[in-house]
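your task:
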Amino acid sequence: MAKRLYRSVGQKMLGGICGGLAEYFDVDVSIIRLLFVGLTLVTALFPMTFFYIIAWIVVPVQPRNAA
């Protein structure tokens, strides 16, 4: 079965995007969050904030039966 990207239900702070990326790439969620904050600050907030909102809308929520 192919891996799919979902918004995390268990490791979410805001929308679950960083938690979902961490689960997809099998890395610690703190690393993804630090990278996201760093990129957000470097790109003057707007592009990464826009990406997060779009991802929040597009990426589906993790189904209950998925691990």
Notes: The chain has three helices and no strands. Helices lie at 17-25, 29-42, 46-58. The chain has a mean pLDDT of 90. Residues 7 and 60 are 6 Å apart (CA to CA).
